[in-house]
Amino acid sequence: MIRSKSLSSKIFDIVLIVILCSIALTCILPLWYTLAVSLSSKSAAAAGIITLWPVDFNLTSYQQLLNDTQFFKSFWISIQRVVLGAGLNFIIVPLMAYPLSKTVKDFRGRNVIMWTVIFTMLFNGGLIPLYLTIQELNLMNSVWALVLVGGAQTIVFNIILTINFFRNLPKSLEEAALVDGAGPWYILFKLFIPLSIPVLATVTLFSIVYHWNEFLYGLIFMTREEFYPLQTYIQQLVVSVDPSQMTEDQYKRLSEMSNRTLDAAKIFIAMIPVLVVYPFLQRYFIHGITLGSVKE
Amino acid sequence: MKAKGFAKHYYLMMLPGFVWLFIFSIIPMFGIIIAFQDFNPGQGVFNSEFVGLETFKYMFQLNDTPVIFFNTMFIAIMKIIGNLIVPLLFALMLHELRYIGLKRSIQTIVYLPHFLSWVILGGVLLDIFAYQGPINQLLGVFGLKPILFFGRADLFPFLIVGSDVWKEFGFNTIIYLAALTGINPALYEASGIDGASRMRMLWHITLPGIRTTAVLLAVLGLGNVLNAGFDQIFNLYNPLVYSTGDIIDTWVYRTGLLNLQYELATAVGLLKSVAGFILISVSYYLAYKFTNYRIF
Amino acid sequence: MKVKGKIFALLILLFLLLLAACSDDAGTNEESEGTDEETTTEETTSDEDADPFGAYEEAITIAIGQEVDPTDTSLEEGETPLNNKYVNHVKENLNINVEHAFTASPSNYDQKVSLAIASNDLPDAMIVGPVELRQMVEADQLADLTQVYEDYASPAIKEIIDSTGGVALDNVTFDGKIMAIPNSQASADGIHNMWIRKDWLDKLGLEPPTTIEELKEVARAFVEEDPDGNGEDDTIGLAGPDTSNKLYANFLESTNNLYGFDGIFSAHHAYPGYWIEGEGGDPVYGSTLPETKEALATLRDMYAEGLIDKEMGVREDSGESVISGKTGMFSGPFWMPYGPITDAVTENPEANWQSYAVPLDENGEYTPHLSTPTSSYVVVRKGYEHPEAPMKMLNNLFAHESEFDHMEGGGGPGHYPLRLVYAPADEMEVTTVAMREVLAGTKEPEDFYDMPAYKLIKNDVDTVFDAKLEPYDNMDIEHWDITSTSFTRAYSALVGTAPQVDTEVKGVPSLIYSQTESMEDRWVNLKKLEDEIFLKIIMGTEPLDSFDQFVDDWKQQGGDQITEEVAEVVN
Which residues fall within 8 angstroms of residue B220, CB to CB, at 6 or more apart? Predict the structure, then answer.
């Protein structure tokens, strides 16, 4: 650093730090607040007097959560979905991206296929035909419905990102391999994939996050709650119901449960896997995105 | 190149992925014909009576149609702008920060919201912006009257845009930061010796250094003009804000799945797909023209 | 090379198309099987002797769609929605194995029903509303239950359905055929009285309001005079609807609207959402009439003055502020103790919630709107082998419902598969009078034992002394044992139902309670137009005169056509 350490520069630094830290704080506080609610008493939560610290600190909601077997079932389904979904994504993405990273000169069918693939990302027939398809394939209530439908809709973006990364790899590497008589499979697996760890880690992270966070397909393709993934399970707790359609005893049960602290506890626990995973993959995805997207 | 006979290997590589996309994205597109039918579930998609463009005529008579298209574009365009500018400003500030450890920590923290689902953040935001929630308590400290944030149709689009920018700005910073690191440090050193102030360096070195990135991102944003964010709005809206907050995707969901108007929902969905396809094609063309960059 | 590549791609495509074609074939096969079954089964059912309560000799299976509340805790340890005493009861008494084709939480049930209809992949039986019923009849997806109803409905159920004066059967009859089994509910669910914190009235030295003006004064006092005495300006005069409720009940959903403004509208003789007789005798839609505009003006003023909950329409649950003791008045049916009130008095035993037949109209009369006697229907899939099985299950439920309630300690048989509510129209009013007579000592509990259609009355008169403390004619909360298990039920009857027993109800019904044909396409959008503009008028974001624009829009966008159809149906 050759920059001068003048007084104005120091003030500038301090102001900068204050601004940046307060912005960063806004990203933490909402989660902190949720934690505080989950650790407060039910009546304090209903009265809305909690700010940043639990009121009537207690662990009741977490004890209740431990007795909720469906929460853990759904948690497990989400884990399965993430492992299968991200695994499949990891295998298919480079296989699709490598040929499509070629120019039309090298691979004549490239543009037609590319546009077909893009087309699948943009057009859809709506949820009902999708539902019919899944039914015909006997995938209702299967975690594969979530893996395959959700995956098909997100993989295209991941392929595009990877194509861009592949294109930016030095041409000389592939040319040298070709001179040595290497085939396409060898080039992909021994040359491209080892060099593409950042982008593959990135698309894997995207896939993990997508499959963990997606809730709508669980609602559509699962006919019973026992098959719901975690976010679907949470979503149906947080959305409102229509009491005009209910009988009085149903309503009674509902009002007994209206339980913000327990909801907050569930929300907080559902965040934890993401909180654990992403900092580890951070250094990869920064590389993956930037190399994959723009080269000045 | 010299890749003779590689094409069949390329097809083979793409086979699994293509089969996947075909079954789960292309086959369900047959449902588009529902838009041209008087769909009778008893007779199914292939035997219902065709009514030509009747549904589309009805669609254009509806008060809702222009409203949801306007809402969608208004929210989406605001989001695109916000997601271009806020991360840019944040990246510039972060770039100026000279304490590497602090810089890393802030970065890690601001990525966090990007990885959380709208199911979870929706629950958290509704709590925080509730009438008796912490934000209104804070307003009360300054003697302001509490505001019914998520019930005000005039505020809703801005809350949606604001919360989306908040969720994504950290993550969107990555690309700018990469472009910033790509600027030749020698330029700064030279101007430092010339006695240029930090603001001058910002203006004359930093900003021109990332101009291409900014232009490219703006152009790519065009493809998203019809995607205002189903997950987010679905988890945050209520009937009070339908007039400004109901977007194409949420409207299609309600119309098709809750009100049993299958034809109308499909027709509107189709219109959106066609318009989206055109927009993507235009942005592809513009990106190529302005920055000589091929997205896919 | 290039040609080869193209051929290869073509081959893949062909292969995939073949795959797709195969799966389509499978689909059509299934359907044709279904129709085969249908023809054979119709014969077998007519051969059997029709016994409404008879068990099947060989166990049969029925796959139903069932609403299951994820937060429900009423099942005992080890029980599941599919394995509990109700399902076992059906198995033991009727030899029917119940399976779940799907389950869904209350908020997602409609979506699942819709997907089942759209994909023509129906459960053997399920419960639907009027909109779905019409759609399914049109798609020819339902079994004709005319014969089933004739032969299998138990006399008790037939009696109750007949007590609706033919309305219940009219709603499910299409082209002279009964296509579904209707329910029948007590009319008390459709009368929305005003619940008021009497302890707050007393504290502030106020009388219970009768007119709208007095109601406004009470609301103002509740907001401004710190009735909860905590020194903070945090109380709500009149609660407003939350996200799951409506401004007012309408002809399609005419019961159980919580925290709405039904009473304020009807005191203006305004019946928005209802089809009523216009001046010339032809049907008109209440939302388009000048009375509705007047009522909106009143509500708009009340909202502007802060008398109505500022957070109306956005709250997830307006009951929360009732429980936490911030709300002074809200509108709701008699059973609100099953809602927030029991919780509210548990939190604060002084919260003396009483129910009043207010506000009254300018003649001092109580003129609420009345509900439909039926709103949900059991439908049976066309082609199901045992179309009479659901009817038998309902017979069985009705015959044993009071036992179930005993077993539950008050919770009710919510987990009974295909549960429809069957109640005589005056069920609650009769119960309230009976309980009062027993309390007063003018009658003995035994006098009410032999009333099979009133299935809970025996239990009610037997347990009334558990919950009600002396003096028996004072209903204030301090004279109750709120910890008693029969408190909720007894309080609903003696306090919640009291207004319509003690006041002459000059109720207004809707001319129809189901959809007409063009409503199917247009109603949702018209309804939305109405809901939005009314909310905005009340909340002050649109001028009052935008009501006139609404009326024009409504008429143009299909309202006129629908009105003609309604006239046809009614005349």
Answer: B283, B287, B295
Minimal Cβ distance to B9: which of A3, A23, A184? A184
Q: Could you report how far apart the first and last alpha carbons of chain A are, in Å? A: 25
Cβ <8 Å between A137 and C23: yes
- State which residue of chain B sits closest to A3, comparing Cα positions: B192
C200 residue type, one letter: W
Is A223's CB within 8 Å of C101's CB? yes
Residue of C nearest to A104 (CA): C2
Q: Which of A279-283, C112-116, C261-265, C490-494 has the lowest mean pLDDT?
A: A279-283
Is the CB of B123 less than 8 angstroms away from the CB of A234? yes
The one-letter amino acid at C73: T
pLDDT value, residue A294: 44
| Pairs of residues, one from chain A and one from chain C, whose beta carbons lie less than 8 Å apart | 133
> What DSSP letter does each residue of A206-227 carry, written as one string?
HHHHHHHH--HHHHHH-SSGGG
Show the tokens assigned to C393: 């299950």
Distance between CA atoms of B94 and B105, rounded to whole angstroms?
11
Domains and CATH numbers, chain A: 7-58 (no CATH), 67-293 (1.10.3720.10)
- DSSP assignment, residue C475? -
- How far is C-alpha A119 from the chain's CA centre? 23
Query: Amino acid letter at C13?
Result: L
Q: What is the pLDDT of residue C328?
A: 94
Of B4, B61, B153, the CB nearest to C541: B153
Q: Write down all domains in chain B, each with its CATH number in brackets.
A: 59-291 (1.10.3720.10)
Q: Do A126 and B90 touch (CB under 8 A)?
A: no
Question: Does residue B7 belong to the interface with chain C, where contact is any CB pair within 8 Å?
Answer: yes
Question: Running DSSP on this structure, what letter comes out for residue C508?
Answer: B
CA distance A2 to chain C (A): 56
Whether residue C29 has pLDDT greater than 80: no
**Structure tokens that stand for C511 in this block:** 């001319």
> What sign results for the dihedral spanned by CA atoms B243, B246, B247, B249?
negative
Mutate to test the interface with B, among C532, C549, C550 (most CBs of B within 10 A): C532
- C130, C93 Cβ separation under 8 angstroms: no
Look at residue B289 in the predicted model and tell me its pLDDT: 83
The helix/strand/coil state of C147 is helix
Return the residue matching tokens 């707050």: C200
Fold of C52-183+373-408: D-Maltodextrin-Binding Protein; domain 2 (3.40.190)
pTM for this structure? Answer: 0.75
> Using a CB cutoff of 8 Å and minimum separation of 24, what contacts does C347-350 make?
C347/A43, C347/C323, C349/C477, C349/C478, C349/C482, C350/C199, C350/C477, C350/C478
pLDDT tens-digit series, residues C35-50 = 444 444 444 444 456 7
Domain C192-369+505-570 has CATH 3.40.50.2300: no
| Cross-chain residue pair A175–B18, CB shorter than 8 Å | no
The residue type found at A205 is L
* Residue B121 to residue C75: CA distance in whole angstroms: 32
